[in-house]
């Protein structure tokens, strides 16, 4: 957490993700509408956020956000028109989408963003950015909405639209169809509900609002017993807040999360840890660093059930442990990454005499060293040493969130330090039952006690959850680097801003719905 890590490891390229801050634009005539545009298409998560067209869209809706030549919060002339988007290299692969939003951060005015469902009709999400052509459908070019059926009541007007498109694969043609209903509410905003289907089978990720980890107090076969289950308010109360400017040259201003409204419970009793969204701040942007009042020495198993991790240009979220005398008291990083990374980083940092053993290096089948050949964990020698990037491209950021999160595990004993990870739906049954047996799990990284004795190098560790902004990792070192941590285009390219601090301090709307969401933290002892 302290140092930056030079990671050069897919383009989930977008600060366009439905972070719809209000911004006034010069009104452009809808006559500027092009018959056909050649453009880049990104994808964006909707996050139940109000769009420029005044609707709340879902990821399953077949929608498009157009550049501000076509749609702004002031100019809605093109809202709810139909657009056909085709792959530039394969025009037969196309999708029919409905205009619901402005893409204010897409760069060139022709560029667009697509909902997750629409993007997947053309390609896999891992492609990140597509070369496309798009045009307004002739039958929607002269109207502001396509009404298949309109019903009026005293309280609401419902507009129902049906869209369909064909997406060609090498094996077969798959037809996607979605029906979206827009209805006015009493305050004249809109909500959207969608039912969708495909002609081929599609995988679905089960949601886990109740959590992935059971709360049995029965001792497991491996001898672990649940000591503390932190959920909802008890999780919040377990921590105190650091109130100070961030370290590592970050531009975060750490504040009391509850009093500032950045830490709270959502409707599922998940703990939300957010970032201030004031559009422009002078020198620092409010964020949160939570530190446990309890400290830990070897003899614990921790399971972190997390639904969402902050994912946006400029963010540096982490879940980690550190002693008060860094680095001699040690540091263990369980969750760490920046910007739009898709691969989680796990690492340890220590004082002198701690390395990764040859056995540890040979056991890396789900991860790789951040810096090839650098297996020295001694922070006096290397601040990036023995850090490992997971191979899973859904272990961090937007793909992790889209997968309904998952569980990270830390086994911290005299025998060594083992780190684990599973997405929701793949969590071992013994964890779901609340009787964890780590001897049956496959660790992503194992730091052997033979080359780094936990008793000697890791003392009185505090548990920390924080989101730094910019700084030596998310800013200076990585901001302009392509292909880092599973992220394709750099944040300098995505945002059009070469200065990370300038972007972070002047684009608060980029952090709308960008937050940690914790279902629970579970602490076991033997």
UniProtKB/TrEMBL annotation:
The keyword Transit peptide does not apply. CDD domains: DPBB_RlpA_EXP_N-like. Keywords: Signal. Residues 1-18 form the signal peptide. It comes from the Eukaryota. PANTHER family: GLYCOSIDASE C21B10.07-RELATED, GLYCOSYL HYDROLASE-RELATED. One of its GO terms (molecular function) is hydrolase activity, hydrolyzing O-glycosyl compounds. GO terms for biological process: glucan catabolic process. Gene3D superfamilies: 2.60.120.200, RlpA-like domain (2.40.40.10). Residues 236-516 form the GH16 domain. Residues 194-220 are annotated as: Disordered. This is GH16 domain-containing protein. InterPro entries: Beta-glucanase-like, ConA-like_dom_sf, Glycosyl_Hydrlase_16, RlpA-like_sf.
């Amino acid at each position: 957490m302290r140092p930056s890590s030079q990671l050069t490891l897919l383009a989930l390229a977008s600060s366009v993700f439905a972070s719809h801050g209000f911004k006034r634009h010069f009104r452009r005539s809808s006559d500027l509408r092009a018959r056909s545009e050649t453009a880049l298409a990104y994808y964006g998560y909707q996050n139940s956020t109000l769009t420029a067209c005044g609707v709340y869209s879902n990821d399953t809706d077949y929608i498009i956000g157009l550049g501000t030549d076509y749609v702004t919060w002031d100019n809605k002339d093109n809202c709810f028109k139909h657009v056909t988007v085709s792959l530039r290299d394969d025009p037969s692969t196309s999708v029919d989408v409905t205009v619901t939003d402005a893409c204010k951060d897409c760069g060139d005015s022709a560029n667009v963003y697509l909902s997750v469902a629409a993007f997947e009709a053309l390609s896999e999400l891992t492609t990140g950015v597509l070369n496309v052509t798009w045009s307004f459908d002739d039958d929607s070019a002269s109207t502001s909405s396509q009404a298949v059926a309109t019903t009026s009541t005293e309280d609401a007007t419902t507009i129902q639209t049906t869209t369909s498109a064909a997406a060609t694969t090498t094996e077969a043609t798959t037809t996607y169809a979605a029906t979206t209903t827009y209805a006015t509410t009493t305050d004249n905003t809109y909500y959207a509900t969608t039912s969708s289907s495909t002609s081929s089978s599609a995988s679905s990720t089960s949601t886990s609002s109740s959590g992935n980890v059971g709360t049995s107090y029965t001792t497991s076969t491996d001898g672990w017993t649940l000591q503390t289950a932190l959920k909802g308010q008890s999780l919040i109360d377990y921590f105190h807040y650091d109130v100070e400017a961030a370290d590592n040259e970050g531009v975060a201003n750490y504040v009391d999360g509850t009093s500032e409204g950045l830490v709270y419970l959502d409707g599922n009793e998940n703990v939300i840890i957010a970032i201030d969204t004031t559009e422009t701040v002078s020198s620092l942007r409010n964020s949160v660093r939570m530190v446990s009042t309890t400290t830990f020495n070897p003899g614990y198993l921790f399971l972190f059930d997390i639904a969402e991790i902050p994912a946006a240009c400029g963010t540096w979220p982490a879940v980690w442990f550190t002693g008060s005398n860094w680095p001699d008291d040690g540091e263990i990083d369980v969750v760490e990454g920046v910007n739009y990374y898709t691969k989680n980083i796990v690492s340890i940092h220590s004082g002198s005499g701690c390395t990764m053993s040859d056995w540890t290096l040979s056991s890396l089948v789900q991860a790789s060293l951040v810096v090839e050949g650098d297996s020295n964990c001694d922070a006096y020698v290397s601040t990036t040493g023995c850090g490992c990037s997971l191979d899973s491209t859904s272990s961090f950021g937007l793909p992790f969130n889209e997968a309904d999160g998952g569980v990270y595990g830390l086994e911290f004993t005299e025998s060594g330090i083992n780190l684990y990870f599973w997405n929701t739906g793949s969590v071992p049954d013994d964890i779901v039952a609340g009787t964890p047996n780590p001897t049956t799990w496959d660790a992503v990284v194992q730091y052997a006690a033979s080359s780094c004795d936990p008793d000697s190098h890791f003392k009185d560790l505090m548990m920390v959850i924080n989101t730094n902004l910019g700084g030596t990792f998310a800013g200076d070192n990585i901001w302009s680097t392509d292909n880092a941590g599973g992220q394709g285009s750099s944040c300098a390219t995505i945002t059009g801003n070469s200065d990370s601090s300038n972007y972070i301090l002047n684009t608060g709307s980029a952090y709308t719905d960008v937050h940690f969401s914790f279902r629970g933290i579970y602490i076991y002892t033997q």
